[in-house]
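Human: Cast an eye over this sequence-structure pair and say how the chain folds.
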Amino acid sequence: MKNKPNIVFLFADDQRFNTINALGNKEIITPNLDELVARGTAFTQAHIPCGTSGAVCMPSRAMLHSGRTLFHLEGEGQSIPKEHITLGQTLKNAGYRAFGTGKWHNGTESYTRSFTEGKAVYFGGMWDHWNVPACDYNEEGIYPSRTVCKSPYTENKVMKDYVEYMEFGKHSTDLFGEVAKDFINNYDSEDPFFLYLSFMAPHDPRTMPKKFLDMYDDVEISLPNNFADEHVFDYGIRDLRDEVLAPYPRTEEDTKHQIKEYYAMITHLDYQIGNVIEALKEKGELDNTIIIFSGDNGLALGQHGLFGKQNSYEHSIRVPLIFAGQNIPEGQTRDSYVYLLDIFPTICEMLGLDIPETVEGQSMLSAINNNEVKVREDLYFAYTDMLRSVKNNRYKLIEYRTANLNKTQLFDIVNDIDEVNDLYGNEEYDEVVKELRKLLFEYRDKWDDQSHRMGKEYWDRY
């Protein structure tokens, strides 16, 4: 028996919080994620704090791997500076063999120093799933440009222009899943391993082996309760990349079809997760392994008339988060507020490792072991220079400030989980707004939210 457990980190791309059957979504097929839920502890209020660029997943991933808060990243989260110790580095220094496969969206240098080995690594953001320009680990950090592989999917192409279910290669989910399974099957070291498997699914283009889409032929896809044909006001993202993946006005038929494809991609991903779990069982390593599953951000897919993640509504800021394995309570859920950046110090505490000084997250271990423990009482969200938001255990305040817009929203997120009844302007809630704005300013100062995008003029608009 190894002196420390293996760590298997499974990471999805664009998978929102309410996309696991065992956690309440009875329309989606996720038997292997359901098994993880049964074997472990799921956080139902895991969040990202939005992002400093339209590519929200970049800062999200940088925060995950560095444990740092949103405005303490470099270059809008595109890379992780050498002085910021990564999760992989920490585990390597503790004697782990670290293997990384799949999407890495924070530069080649940080990947190279975070792992001892790796295969089928994709260094870009999005690509068609059947033709991924993947690289193998190089200890010198030298990787070919992704332009050597031409993709038929480009940013200016709308989904309808894409050749549906084009199968001229191996799908990214299968590519990365099989690489991870092979790593486990061929592992022959007495050292514990850290396996980071980062899928590109269910990010668009929404393609998958047809058999997974066919699994939903008899499933009646529900329209979201907060479906709208367009957002109630334009705050600057109407023509952003994610938002042009569906026509205006949004239609019920198209929205349901895209949700169906989204679910099918998750079911395909779930299938490969099952293969990884089975490999651990066959290798005799499952009982000595901590498995963590999460995603980099949520996705609207028709809710509030939006299709992307460039907002601070619940559907876009909340992600799934499951811990399963050695010494983790089974079949439990936790409703404590947490961020993805809290995973790094949690793993350190689980393993008895010193948390690097550069890490700013808060360990969730006490909350994993005790449902009464609250890691965070409130949360802060920021999307570029367009909005700032805070939420406590009852209310969420969203402030939109652009050159052409000065707009505020207030939602009771306990009694209005779909965020459709805006309470701002109702005198009964004036004190709530006042307290939440005070909290927002406190977070602004605590998180050093004073970049060039957030000058005095911006804040004076409050």
About this structure: The longest strand covers residues 395-402. The longest helix spans residues 252-283. The CA atoms of residues 41 and 219 lie 28 Å apart.
